[in-house]
Amino acid sequence: MTNRKLILENGIVFEGQAFGSDLASDGEVVFTTGMTGYQETLSDPSFAGQIVTMTYPLIGNYGINRDDFETIDPAIKGFVVRELAQTPSNFRCDTTLDEFFKMKKIPGIEGIDTRKLTRLIREMGSIKATLTAAGEEVDVEKVVAKLKSTTFPTNQVEQVSTKTPYPSPGRGKKVVLIDFGMKHGILRELNKRDCDVVVVPYNMPAEEILALYPDGIMLSNGPGDPKDVPEAIETIKNLIGKVPIFGICLGHQLFALACGADSFKLKFGHRGANHPVKELKTGRTELTSQNHGYAVDPASLEGTDLEVTHLALNDGTIEGLKHKEYPVFTVQYHPEASPGPEDSNHLFDEFIELMNVDTRKEQHHA
Amino acid sequence: MPKRQDIKTILVIGSGPIVIGQAAEFDYAGTQACLSLKEEGYRVILINSNPATIMTDTQIADKVYIEPITLEFVSRIIRKERPDAVLPTLGGQTGLNMAIELHESGILDELNIEILGTKLDAINKAEDRDLFRNLMYELGVPVPESDIIHNLEEAHAFVEKIGYPVIVRPAFTLGGTGGGICYNDQDLNETVTSGLKYSPVTQCLLEKSIAGFKEIEYEVMRDSKDNAIVVCNMENVDPVGIHTGDSIVVAPSQTLSDREYHMLRNVSLKIIRALKIEGGCNVQLALDPHSFNYYIIEVNPRVSRSSALASKATGYPIAKLAAKIAVGLTLDEMMNPVTGKTYACFEPALDYVVAKIPRWPFDKFENAKRNLGTQMKATGEVMAIGRNFEEAMLKAVRSLETGHKHIEMKNPEELSDQWIEKRIRKAGDERLFFLGEALRRGVTIETIHDWSQIDLFFLNKFKNIVDYETVLKDYPHDKAVLRQAKRIGFADETVAKLWNTTESAIYDFRKENGIIPVYKMVDTCAAEFESETPYFYGTYEDENESIKSERESVIVLGSGPIRIGQGVEFDYATVHSVWAIKEAGYEAIIINSNPETVSTDFSISDKLYFEPLTIEDVMHIIDLEQPKGVVVQFGGQTAINLADKLEARGVKILGTSLDAIDRAESRDRFEEALHEIGIPQPMGKTATSAEEAIVIAKRIGFPVLVRPSYVLGGRAMEIVYNEEELQYYMEHAVEASPEHPVLVDRYLTGTEIEVDAICDGENVLIPGIMEHIERAGVHSGDSIAVYPPQQLSQKHIDTLTDYTTRLAKGLEIKGLMNIQYVISDDEVYVIEVNPRASRTVPFLSKITNLPMANIATKAILGQSIVEQGYPTGLAPIQQGVYVKVPVFSFAKLRRVDITLGPEMKSTGEVMGKDSTLEKALYKGLVAAGMDIKDHGSVLMTVADKDKEEAIALARRFTNIGYSILATPGTAKAIEEAGLKASVVDKIGSNGPTLLDVIQNGGAQLIVNTLTKGKQPARDGFRIRRESVENGVPCLTSLDTAEAMLRVIESMTFTAEEMPKQEVRG
To answer: Domain spanning B354-515: which CATH class is it, in words?
Structure first.
């Protein structure tokens, strides 16, 4: 195995062994605490542009299978693990993580003290970093200087969103799913409920969307800062009140911005499968899967039509919103799970129910 | 939801004595629960018969009752204390069964007492096989094809339908007692017959065997608001077919994808919600390795051994929170005690691997069946934490203290390939080590998988370990190779062997080259949040998180896994020592490897290191912490055995010095010391060969007591009556050598006395003297001990006090000591001195109200007994009579001879206390699980040498209306004495034999003394085992029988006819 370094913007260097692609890569280093689900994680488009650290030390144990992808081409910039499994074992295993990364040209590093790295990120916040090319000797100071002067692109949504609309047919409710970097899980949950889904690019204008005559609109998850996709905010403004809307993650943040609220960057984000979220109406707490670096600013809700429905139990950040007047609700977490707990899977049923109620209402008016 | 205000007083039911399947984990759970309830302001009443527990310390609950956990006694306490509620879910199966009995007796309804935690209905649904299956059908959760059977015919009918193999699980039993896998009719007949006997409801579940499936466990919690979480999931390395308590287990699961993980998580949460459990619950599942098919195996609606393991593996204190949930608090309003900053309603994220390996008693029971199956046999377990699987596993291996430091057998060259295959195919206690040998011989992991069904993932990991041995061999003294070897968990001792050098040379080489471990925190959240839990494990990484504090510290070594001879008593002493160190103003640091115990609860000490108790692992911590010294006298032989190596490395041993320890334990030096002090001991000498032993024995005269030096719990100790037996013993039981001499002592018959004492260097405090019911020759741990002595004259008490004081001073004891004496022919002899805390510390501490381990620790730290405000000399005798009765787990261990002798066999103990010896004995025997009948039949079969004494007992049995059954020889002797005895034929005769009588319930009590030889084939052995299998008390010492008789006599009125009047003519 050849050596590889992970060099942080602040000059701290981790030396480990390379796996996957031999190429070098830059990105923002983040960590996620999920103990299973590395395949879903590495293929989650919300991680676009990021180097993902798995806090659980043994990764690759059950290999890579054909089923558990959240996208076809992963958008992560690199993967950091304590130990990569050499010989995975699971009946669905089709290839190893190492082989898969070689094919997808994603660099990985193993053998480093990932807990130390996690603690650093916890203290300093998410940080820019370089994964060096396998076996390459680099001048750390130069790398750090380059990292400091680099601004990462802010068009991650454009990178991961579909370029053209496509259908995923069903016989039930007609749903337009706006792809900001959609996890397949969202589509799977809608299809499971027999929805007739059309997935559309992030920048499709509202009138084109409405011309598909949807029963409801789904705003997907996606990478980066919601403020980097102003066109989507405009689109959503024009959709509110027309049909029921359900938003997840970035979709949730975009909806908040569309209603006049503000968002801010979290120090090191929420990434993992064990985040408790409290529903204010029932007082019930659910364990949720989360992956976000930004959140909606509670102070900015004043004067908007937004009502908080869910809060993070631990840090009190906003986890769910609804529109006071129109049938729109959004959550910061991932009810589609994959990876993570399926406690809030029922939100998709609630979306279907919302569309049912809305259709009945329309018929009544007609 | 706020805690409930409508209840004030809560009765907590403990789990009673330690038996296989129910051990120290319930002391941990119970202690946490009681403290947790007190913290919320409730009045806590505790009942537990086990004195060797922290939970029965009077400061843990508002009122502590050390009484038998039987309907009779619990009801009496309930009537006296009038609790508002009962919390049974922290006392294991004992607690749950008691709750059901209480309910059925009607007392709970009568007094309007509520059951907290898990409702009765849920207990029944989870425990009753039929109701459980129905619930699973309702929920649409798959369970293996099965049937409830009530007799053998039904069992055969089921097998005809689905075929062999099938698993038999008796209902409402503990640790799978009486169950097993059956491959044929013979297995089925045996297992079902015994299973039905063990089930209190005469009911067994027969189910399709799904052996070979992955066995996965989920520890789940739920509150009254229906919030439900998974604390931890675990994967058994051994697939389905071996009781989870006997399986090697890792946490979290290793081979499950996210889909599989959450599929099983969902169903676990569905079940706890359906059962409406408010507290903790354990769900065991079987997952097909080749599909998404799964089955529910079992649900335990209470905290369990697995939840203790999960608590230690994650840091999440399940029992503590379960108790709070039981009184109405909810997960979303309680803080996570580990981080102190986040809420308890979350699922811990691990960033390490945890391995658990059970500790089995087969080293003590050579004849026991070593096969593992659905009936648990382990007495304890070890846990280890590492940053990879190999590291965690190898750390766990060296924590076991079975002599293994690596996955290898002791003399591998003596093992044939066939034998290795056999021992891998059929799971046993040493499978892991045979596995290592197979890999070393080049057997492929695929072949081993075929033999064992162990997942290839794990086999690959074991192969990594074995492969790295070759790398080490090829690169002697290569730093990079050594570092990698340490990263995958190799012990210095293993590396030393491969590099042909010594363990300490490797240690020094590593230190020179900076290859030392760092310590990472167990924080429940994979470092996502800052936490201040002082709970650490060692690993070879970059960043060290354990920072030495400014305060002066003292390290206490724990006692490792629970085994026969070194039970929970030593954890009790360890915990008290830690508390005393804290009180004395030092930082108290503990090192231990046992996940079941109170000592490894991170809230006990200032710092907890969950590490193996080997010199290497302990020294790393000492290097980092630079403590004032190390306390070794509370951690049993585990800690004592490290003393010389620690001192050799310049570490200060606090308390009795190494030299003094050696003087007490090395036979020749001890003899010299006794001679100096002027105290007699039985004649004896050490032998380093068989020839020498025979010479010594002939000189001092048979019978002699033989045993290896430096052992615990009388391992391999025997009384031999002639040269032939001695020869056999020397050849088979021990390996005598100059380094490991064998002690040969004159065997003195007489009353055995046990004394514990504390010495501060100047003064000696003797909390109490205990007298044993059984004469010398029965191991003190297996004897019934009585406080205060009932038959000793003041003269002997004075002598014992004088000897003990002189011994403590003469041997330069600082801290605790334990002395065994025998009084033979009116003369007091010293048999043994243990320069450390003994098994009787908790028993005596509780009786005398003298916190012995605490006083001893403070004395060690320099505060004299007088300065501490305690008296010196023999403490005043307490009111009442207290007995310590041993408890055995023979029902779990097939083929083990139950005869009491010099080698310890009990797994736990209970205390009986009352105003008279008879009453105290009654309570003790009942608490120990013996069924005392005031009428019935006693079956007597005794050795010739015991016949005279047996006749005296037979006469007394006759007087209270017991009928006597006896084998021809014994019957003849009894009849000759003018008593009636029905003859029962010996085994193998035509008519109804002994075995029939026992099997048909014809005897309520059996008195059997040992005939010569230890061959299992002998009749005596069959009788004793048959009594165990049928749950009939079998007493193998006439002294125990006499005690039992006294109890029965005191329970009954005599039935004597009027004396005939002589009519004078």
So the answer is: mainly alpha
